[in-house]
Amino acid sequence: MPDSQAPLPEHAPVEPRSPIGRNRQFMLLFVCLLVIGAGNSMLLAVAPPLVRQLGLSDSSVGWIFSLSALLWVFCSPHWGRASDSAGRKPIIALGLGAYAVSMGSFGAVVMLGLNGILSGIWLFALLMLARSIFGAFGSASSPAAQAYIADRTTRMERTEQLAGLSAAFAFGQAFGPAICAALAARLGLVFPIVLVAVLAALTSFLIWRYLPENTPPKAEQRRSNDWRESLKLANDRRLSGFLIYGFGLSLIAGITVQVFGLFTMDRLNVSGEQGAEYAAAGFMVNALAFLATQLGILPRLKLSPRLLMAWGAGLLALGVVIQIAAPSLGALMVALAVQGLGAGLARAGFAGGSSIAVRPDEQGAAAGLVVAINGAGFVFSPLLGGVVYENLGMNAPLYITVVILLGMLAFALRSRRLRQSIAVEAPPSEPTPPA
Description:
Helix content: over 70%
Structural class: mainly alpha
CATH class of the largest domain: Mainly Alpha
Order of helices and strands: HHHHHHHHHHHHHHH
CATH superfamily of the largest domain: MFS general substrate transporter like domains
CATH architecture of the largest domain: Up-down Bundle
Largest sheet: none
Number of domains: 2
């Protein structure tokens, strides 16, 4: 096991904690991920026109976000473990504060570039550095928030509650581009970036001031090599199957997000400006379907994490097939809606199953690995997305996506690792106190 301390007894007494639910704690965490989701989608919406105004190449956007994703992968497990010892609340607040600094710095660098003070390689390097603050330190919020939920839910409640956090991120992603477009038209492209920085700083303060955390941090000493411990947990058969599936899910998200705008313009033969408008509509439909799945459909299904992962992969594959054959904008919207439905099921099963599979004292470490995997695919997706699109045609990345999804479906149904992990979710004799 990754921790050298003795495993907790199966029926060990659990320290009293504030229950989680549709209450103040959940709403604060909901707003936390809502701000992050909205800010990321806003930045994705304004980055392409901004880099052109700044005289940078279109490909620079991808490099900026890829470096941040790489840092996210390496840093998320550390912050998950840090929340085990420092407490969930301060790590969540730290991540939001860093996000505010990242967005504020990005906006400041853009202003310097628009005013001719910075240009060329220095401008590009500073934009990359500003975004990297989010990958390195902003990655603290998500694993700590997931671990906070895991601390205060039973095994049966956890999948639904973690899905609520995913819904918050999706809600922000759904309405971020629309809000950004309205603000940018009136106040300029930089204003939405500054607004997100202010909202992130305010949310960080609210988390620090009002989020209750009645459970003190664990008193064990920290080990000298957190990465070695994280690798041990990642290789643990209880968790490794979920991480393999999660990497595939992240890779699929990276490919589909990257190529959808290009695919829309080429399939519908529209101009760049009109194509961007259609792509924004598609992303909104996708995020709304994801949100509806998390908040409306998932609580009624009562499926195990493994079955959610299987259904999610299957629906995602169906959505991509519809996109390949789509002859019109309406058909593309249907494809994105089906993909959003599948992603909602798949991500809920992956996140909930990962939490259920590990002990209470491993929740922070497991959440860090889950969040890292969520970003890992975006490091590699430019190769299977943009490069394949340019060299092999508009449908080639989507064919690759369908093959990966069918592999994920088979893995979810047949993997012994997943079956063994799910088999110990809730033994009949196990009580259900807060984990």
